[in-house]
Structure formats: C-alpha cells, structure tokens
Amino acid sequence: MTDQTHHDFQARSPRSQTQRLDRARQQEIFFGVAAITRPDGKIEVGFCAHDGTYSMDFAMHCIEAKRDAAKTLSDFVIMRVKEYQNVRNVKCLGAGISKAAHDISPDLPARMWAELDIPTLEFERNPVEGDIITGEVDVDEEADAMARKCVVMYGPQKQPLLQVGFLNEVSVDAAGHAILCTLEQYRNTVRKTTWDATMYYAERLKKRGIRMAFLNATPQGGGVALMRHALVRLARLLGVEMKWYVPRPKNEVFRITKTNHNILQGVSEPDERLSADQTEMIKNWIHSTAKREWVRKRGPLAKVEDGGAHILFVDDPQMPDVVPLAKEIEPNRPVLYRSHIQVRADLVDGAPDSPTAEVFDWLYSRIKEADLFIAHPVRDFVPKLVEPQKVAYLPATTDWLDGLNKELRFADSRYYLDIYNAHCLESSQPQLAFPARDYIVQIARFDPSKGIDTVIRSYGELRRKYYKDTPVHQTPQLCIAGHSSIDDPDASAMFVKTMDLIENEYPDLASDISVMRLGPIDQELNVLMSNAKICLQLSTREGFEVKVSEALHKGIPVIVTRAGGIPLQVEDGKSGFLVDTGDYEKVAEYMYQLFIDRDLYAEMSGYAAAHVSDEVSTVGNMLSWLYLADTMTREDGKKLETNGAWINDLAREGAGIPYEEGEPRLPRHYKT
C-alpha cells in the first residue's frame, strides 16, 4: 500500500506534556472519515478530528490499492486512527463514516468497533448539499461533515442517543446508523451446527416475508432490552423482518409493576398486594399506547393484511393486557408470552390466598390466550395453572460482540477503569486500586433478590477470617456495580440499604468496598468483569442471570447460589462453585481457595472459557425465535404443542441438525 500524504494531522504535544498525559485521563474526541475511489483506482481518504464543539485537526491521503481495496482502506484507517489516539493520548468516542467509504470497505465500521472500541456511524450526504466532486477538498470537507453528524447523535452520557421512533418502535443502533458487527463476526461466535440451523430458518422466513414483532416495557437498562438490541441488530444482518416496540413510559405504572415483580419472586414486603385500581391502571397504560400507536396501519397489532406482524412476542409480565388485545384484533395470529423472571410456583400452587397467587392469577387471566408460555428453563418457575402443552423453555442470552463482552485493548481498558474511578470519586466511593490489588465483583441491578447483603458478608468473612493478619495492600477489594433500568424504582432504596449495612457492620472494610450505580456505558461493566479475579452472583431469587455466563466466557471463575436458573450455567467444581443462598461462610472459603491455589484457579478459568453453550449467545437466541416464527406461521393450521420442551432442541430437530457429541449444552430437566 502506497500512501501519498497530501495533508497530515498538525496538532502536536510537547514531549513533556505527552509524558504527563500518559498518566492522566484521556481527552475525548470524535472522528470523521470519508473516502472516494478516483478514476485511476487510487483511494482518497479524509480524516477530521473533532472535540465535540469544533473541528480541531484534519488529514488527507491518497492510497494505492493494488489488490483488495476493502482491506487496504480498512487497514489504513485503523492504522491512522490508532496512531492518532496513541500519540496524542486521546480517546475517540465515535466516528462518522461516509457511505462511499463504507461501500469501498464494508468491514471498516465493524473493525473500528472490535479493534479500537469506536462506534462508527454511517451517513449519506444529503442531496441538497450538492454532488460529490472528486478532489482533495471534497474528501476533506466530507470528513468534517461526518464528524459533525456523528457528534449530534451523542447524548450527555457520551453514548449514541437511544431512539424510539414512529409507532414507538425502538430504533436500534441509532436508527441503523451505527454499524457494530458483520454477519461473519456473528458466525464466528458460535459452532457450525448452531449457525447452520439458524440460517435454515432465516432463509425460510425471508422467502415467506414473515414479519415478527417484540413488545416489552423498556428500551434500555435491563436484560430483556440488552437481548433485544442484539437480536434486532442480527436480524438486520440476516435480512429477516423483526421489529421491537415499547409503550410510552409511565413512572406510576412502573412502581406497580416492579412491586408485582417482587411479589412473583417472593421478595416483596408481606403487606404488599395488587389492587383492582392498579390492574386497571396497567390496562389503561397499555391500551392508550396501543390505540395511539400499535393498532394503526403497519403497527405491530394491526391486522396482517394491514401490515401488522405475522407473529407477536410479548416479553414482559408488565404488559399482559397486550395478549387479549392482539387476539381480539387477529384471533388466529400467534401471540407468544415469555415469562422472564423467577415465579414462585410453590406459592402460587400451595398458597392460593398469598400475594404471589393473587398476582399470578391476574397475570394468567390476561395471558391464557397466548399460544405459548415461554419460561426460563426451570420447571419450578411454571405454576400448575399453565396448560402443560403450552410450556416451552428458553434461557436468557448475551451478545459476545457488544460492549459488555467484547475484548478491549489495554488502552481502552485503562480508559474505562479511569472512568469508573472518576465516578467513584464523584460519589465519595472507594476507588479500585487495580492492578496493584485484585478485586472481587458482583455485577447486578440493585434489587432485593440479588443477594447483595450476602456479597458483603462474604467479603467481610474473607477479610476478617482469612486475611486478618495480611497487610491491607495485599488483600483484595470488593466491587458491587450495575446499571439501572427506568422501570426499576427499587434501585435507590437498595443502594441505601447496602451502604447502611457496610457502615453499620463493616466500617473497618468500608474503604475497600466500592458500590456504584452506573450509567449506560456497557464497556464500564465489561472492564470491571474482565479484570476481576472472581465473579459472584449470590442471588436469593433469580430467573437465569446471564452475567454468570458472561464471566465464564471471559475465563473468570464464579461463585454462585443455587437460585433459579443460575446452576444451569455452572459445573460445580469445574467452572465455579455452587453454594446455598445466604451461605456467606462457604463463599468466603471458596474465594480464599481461588486466591491461594494458582493451579486450581488456572484450571477452573480454562474450563470455564471453553464450556459456554451457544444457547446463551445472540445467535442461539435467534435460532429459537426464528424456529417459533417459522413453525407457528405455517399455513397448514397445525398447532405447536411444546409440552415442556426446550425451544432450542425443537429448532435443531426441525432443521435436521442434532447436537454433536461433546457440544456444550445447558443441562435439561432442571427442577429447582
């Protein structure tokens, strides 16, 4: 590759300042990238560095692409952007790329995200701006325009703004401008069997033009939203029509639905009940959004002949009233309900006057018309009231390519740790001393069911019993962190309870326990998980909690409770340790073993990373949903009766691709 530099970046820092900057937090900037192919086959490339207010530097190059123009351009852009960041000690928050540059190098945006941690947004030049004229000035000006367009897509959290558009459809990845992954990258996250089965159903659905729609309460913050962003992203790459809708937010309703959530899990206050007025408020909330947005032409609940979805997935116990409404409009359209929390079936079945039974009776009266009841793969999560032939199992999943899980460069890892410690400083919380000191982490929402008190007691036991004579600087710290969801009003109260416990019972350890509610930056949680020595998940009630699989995928040994679907993900003594809920003494014992026995740690870490099932990945999740969409929208009128089967098993069987010997698979027939 020959590079003719027409104009190089001019901004420079004195060596002494650069050395000081190496020890400081990086300046945050944006990039613009534009490229055109000249008649002689050479590629003109323009760069613009932007500080969020105004352009601060630019460069123009002409490169010769003798063979592979796509790779030549992507290699060159990656090299130049990386060099600019390293030399000037800056962190690029986002990049705008011209459509012409993306057309030349289709993999460039995904490489920017994977290799440099830069979300890259594609923009087309508006026709009113005039034609693109080949020449140095045009590529320079267009790069500047790309940087400016990128800047306006970002919000105060320094992330692309979450967008909910027409019909309250969630506009994933900045309405499609952000390009984070390629289909080939997704293919490489799973085994060939999983990929082939997924493609089998994707091709069938594309040929038939099937429209799928997901509906849940919130577009950001919880596990459901994380899964849905990834699923819609992959659907775009596959070319299948999948859309996602949310109702208009209403805080008064979220307080009710969060209480219902706690009641169903059996972690609510004893006197909390669901009233008739509250059920009416929930119904009115759903109906108001549906009538304004979803039942109109081309809305998800519209009749199929009017552009509505062929199949609906209701993924939230907050929105049961969608089911009867959808069936009233289009009786023969399949509507599937997913129960994504741990329901205390023992309280529903064994205590008919309990708050749990009352809430589930109300819930089931709304969803009983659903064609399937999809639950986390634990039989005890399904009350007897649910018709057995409608029960199917599907685990929660995660995306190996998103900000929560992708591998970060050392420089980016340091950047996000610096951000975390800056947030700690602002909140008067202890900072992490990593890498000087190891730390233990639990990443979860601040929720009554997450066992945060057990986490603190376990750490207290570890420090007071096993490290009582060890200098403080040689002991591990504890980090408890998590995102917040807009439909979770309990988080603030739980945070206060957590701090009270530390201050009242563990004041001697308070300076080593870092407790933080974080914003929507996924990489911040990623770096906390990736650098931890041990990951805890000590929930008392749990649906599945895929954070466990995320830790295992990184090779981080876990210590988890036998709660809900958590044990499905861990092989006791091989990839982690299982303990009874509340047994903080055993947790401390296992933590100490992992700290002092290097061979045990290395063996467990290696086993964990190599034995994560495809079922907990985005592609594995897509396989199950595509199978359901294909099977339940066939014109033969044959009803699908699942009878407690795992959807993944049915999908593999339907595609004629059975599990191979030794292929990692979550345990079946787990009861409790």
TrEMBL record:
The keyword Transferase applies. Residues 1-21 are annotated as: Disordered. The keyword Glycosyltransferase applies. InterPro entries: Glyco_trans_1, Trehalose_Metab_GTase, TreT_GT1. GO terms for biological process: glucose metabolic process. It comes from the Eukaryota. GO terms for molecular function: glycosyltransferase activity. Residues 215-381 form the Trehalose synthase N-terminal domain. Signal peptide: none annotated. Belongs to the glycosyltransferase group 1 family. Glycosyltransferase 4 subfamily. This is Trehalose synthase. It comes from Aureobasidium pullulans.
